[in-house]
């Protein structure tokens, strides 16, 4: 697998998002999850991303049990699951969460530590100062921010350099192209694209709306609620036809489009099973292919917002 840079570390161009190990998309099985991690590493994936709220620590525990050390690992803190949902960015809370995560991960150090959501009441400069202390103490290799505005990134970076910024980015979620991707490039921060396969919409087969109520987070997500869900399937169908015609997997073409948007972009698709990893073989796209994909799926094609009002809590809006 080709390499891209996070901080001063080269990692595979495709990373791995471990949110699904925590049950966000349905029940999980530890043995299957461990087998999936093995297969991901065998495929050349070296950057793995988790968080303390994914299954209330379950995802971190699985990675800790896996026990691999030859990887670049990111975890996060800052979200307090509700209801109501809340965030905390004060130094004592961040330190407490980090120690808890390190215990679950069976580590003394993590390569990248994100603030999952920003707490508006705490100046971003103070937060950057807290994270700089953790770097200097050797607890973390670098720090990142998630779902922030370009202005927040600039302020934080001026206080202490930001290693990476994570936001949703895919063919159907293009907001980061309105400033955040460009700011990351300018400042030398990696842009980590989560949900690059649109939470399964760019999976091997068209999704069916059989999400488990109260378990699968898509059940209440506007883009997966009718009539939006059927409308989105219809818009994406010609893209699936194009992939079949060109011999690409649908996930492989969607990932290739994301990678083509900047050399500093690292997508982190996720899966619960090793079976889906073979679909992530990145398609070889040229400029004509990219133009055709964007003709079929132009910016703004999605029906429905990417989050519900509740899910949007503490996501910074800048456009």
User: Main beta sheet, described?
Assistant: 8 strands, parallel
Total of domains: 1
Strand content: 5-15%
Query: If you average the pLDDT, what whole number results?
Result: 95
User: Whole-number radius of gyration?
Assistant: 19 Å
| CATH architecture label | Alpha-Beta Barrel
Helix-and-strand structural type? alpha/beta
- Regions with pLDDT < 50 over 5+ consecutive residues? none
What strand line-up does the widest sheet have?
A: 3-4-5-8-9-10-11-12
Globally, the shape reads globular
CATH-assigned homologous superfamily: NADP-dependent oxidoreductase domain
By DSSP, the count of extended strands is: 12
CATH topology assignment: TIM Barrel
SSE order and pairing:
Layout: E1 3-6, E2 9-12, E3 16-17, H1 30-42, E4 47-49, H2 58-66, E5 72-77, E6 79-80, E7 86-87, H3 91-105, E8 112-115, H4 124-136, E9 143-146, H5 150-159, E10 164-168, H6 180-187, E11 190-194, H7 228-246, H8 250-259, E12 265-268, H9 287-296
Parallel strand pairs: 3-4, 4-5, 5-8, 8-9, 9-10, 10-11, 11-12
Antiparallel strand pairs: 1-2, 6-7
